[in-house]
Amino acid sequence: MMKKKILALLLTALMVMSLAACGGNADQGGDAPAAPAQNEPAAPADAGGDAATYVVGISQLVTHDALDAATQGFQDALNELLPGQVKFDYQNAANDPANCATIANSFVTKGVDLIMANATPALQAAATATADIPILGTSVTEYGVAFGIENFSGTVGGNVSGTSDLAPLDQQAAMIQEWYPDARNIGLLYCSNEANSLYQVTTVQGYLEKMGYTCTAYPFADSNDIAAVCQNAVDNSDVLYIPTDNTAASSCPIIDSICHGSIPVFCGEEGICAGCGVATLSISYYDIGYKTGEMAAQILTGEADISTMPIEYAPEFVKKYNPPMCEALGVTAPEGYEAIA
Fold first, then answer.
1. Mean pLDDT in the chain?
2. Helices (H), the chain
3. Full-prediction pTM beyond 0.85?
């Protein structure tokens, strides 16, 4: 009887030791983390503070006054609407579309929360790089042209929306007629690598030809041949028109050195006009940048769905003239024009 009791005790001890060993292996070798204690809450997902923080990538095609103002407006809006919550990763492509692609891919790799693409090539590169990260364009003239969308309805859809810098092209054509009704030959100077520039030139040409002007397009490929093309345009034209064109904007000193005091230049935006033009129908690039920032805040906080956000346009357009250029040409601005400061 005694031997049976001892054997039973030994078997019980062996079972207890076996169970203890199994429990120890589960704690040390299991993949799942240990659950929090019964009465202790799990650690919050964002332990860094109450407000969420966001990283926004900014891809700007090139440095010039208009794009710089749009970027500044965008940053100011987000800093005001989400103070202390947004970190900006600003990258400049130096007017090279290949750099736009590199920048966009780097933003995707970093996993930014939103991309702001300043100018058409930056927008196209970002849209190629990702279909998931929200993308807002600004300083983009026509989104339907940028993406090859026929019968564009005003909403891109997917992960893209933004703001446009398009001023009424019929009014730009009318501005030339207002200043120079007796001119005959209008030269249209633009960068052939910018799809939105071609769109503007083609549209303006239609309006001008209905007014009786003869129009000739003078496309240049990049800043390397702009001087030769511009000189040819000046030699064969009474008036030049330059649309909102980033390559032209960054090459204003070259254009001005050829045109100054010899031929009037009408421009699609104020920055180019200030550098080499006589007059423009202008928008505020700061304002459209600010509006883009407001849209970004809504997207980041979940208040809006980018796939349903329509493209926003400048709320007002102002006729402006360049006093030094008018003086050099010996012309007086018609009534209703504001001087470019």
1. 88
2. 2-29, 65-81, 97-110, 120-129, 143-147, 169-179, 195-210, 226-235, 246-250, 252-259, 270-276, 285-300, 323-329
3. no
